[in-house]
Amino acid sequence: MTLILGIESSCDETAASVVLDGRRILSSVVASQVDLHAQYGGVFPEMASRAHIEAIAPVVEQALRDAGASVNDMDAIAVTRGPGLAGSLLVGINYAKGLALMSGKPLLGVNHLEGHVYALWLTQPLQDAEFPVVVLIVSGGHTELLLMHGHGQYERLGGTLDDAAGEAFDKVGRVLGLPFPGGPNIQKAAERGNPEAFQFPRGKRDSSYDFSFSGLKTAVLRAVTVPANKSNKADAPVSEKNSVLRSGLNVGDASASFQDALVDILVEKTARAAAEYGVSEILLTGGVSANARLRDEMKRRAGLPVRYPPINLCTDNAAMIAAAGYHRFTAGQRDDLNFDVLPNWPLTRGTYTG
Ligand code: KG4
Ligand code: ZN
Q1: Positive or negative CA dihedral for 253, 256, 260, 261?
Q2: What domains does the chain contain, in order, with CATH numbers?
Q3: pLDDT over 90 (residue 125)
């Protein structure tokens, strides 16, 4: 019986969780800053750190209380070390170090992307994956396509060259005048839209496993807006700032067409990787894996079992950090107390070995 306290503060959620044996969630507390950042239409880093500082102690205390446990009952403390916003990561790491120092419990720095991967192991039924598997991590900050050879063994096949998939959802949502975050609101608007109303480019249809969403984003902006100021030249670069929504625009149609284009790109490359490496299943994770269209199209076109976490574990949480920490802990990893943040830490073969 191994109990891990997980702590997450890499972006705009302050979260803590107690997980048993890497699988059973005894408690999971997530303090979201969505309302705080909604007014800016995106995450505001300085505000994020300040909100983490205020939330971290009560969130951790609540997670322990909900689990009916104290720090002294834990086998280890796992905290997100990166990737993420440096100032935000620091809040979680410093708090975790304090707890580790006070309790004498081992501390583990966990890769946030690995956390998203292990959100899959928190789901029911608790059968194990048959390795290798292809993993697509799609979140607000990341789009990573991985080949996972075994527990903790990752080979990076590709990723985004510009915006992350969730970031594209959020930016297009803002252009369409939908509330932040864009992803769930675009999905909702798309339900009553025609996905064939607009023909948006798919971008980077090449043999690589990299993605590019900036062309799609610009195409949406061009299609749905007109210059705000008549004096703007017709060939002036399009930007969100000097544009307004076309009058009579059907937001549902634009949402559905954009969502289809983005999902098409994600599914095409993920399914191709699955075929090339002959894997028996595909794992989807990260905030965008909550998207119903992505889930359905991946199942339909890959012709393989597709696993994804329940909605509440798709987006950032600390149970996934505790679950990844459990696998690190049982593999013998222990970090010393003076490790620092790694804001750009990739998830590859050398993530934990340097
Ligand atoms: O994993 P996450 O909480 O944060 C990061 O680690 O970055 O993902 C948040 C992202 C946001 O960009 C949000 O718009 C997107 O996930 N998202 C969705 C859906 N729900 C959340 N995107 C598409 N469809 C959804 N249903
Ligand atoms: Zn995340």
Answers
A1: positive
A2: 3-121+313-351 (3.30.420.40), 129-308 (3.30.420.40)
A3: no
Q: What confidence score (pLDDT) does residue 53 get?
A: 94
Q: Binning pLDDT at 50, 70 and 90, where does residue 240 land?
A: confident
Nearest to 62 by CA among 26, 114, 105: 26
Closest C-alpha to 313, from 154, 159, 124, 162: 124
pTM for the whole structure? 0.94
Q: Is the CB of 11 under 6 A from ligand 1?
A: yes
Please indicate whether residue 288, judged by its CB atom, sits closer than 6 Å to ligand 1.
yes
Does the CB atom of residue 287 touch ligand 1 within 6 A?
Answer: yes
Q: What percent of the chain has pLDDT over 90?
A: 83
Query: Averaged over 317-334, what is the pLDDT?
Result: 96
User: How large a percentage of the chain has pLDDT more than 70?
Assistant: 95
| Distance from residue 251's CA to the centre of ligand 2 (Å) | 27
Please determine, for residue 203, whether its predicted confidence score (pLDDT) is greater than 80.
Answer: no
Distance 295 CA to ligand 1 centre (A): 14
Q: Is the pLDDT of residue 330 over 90?
A: yes
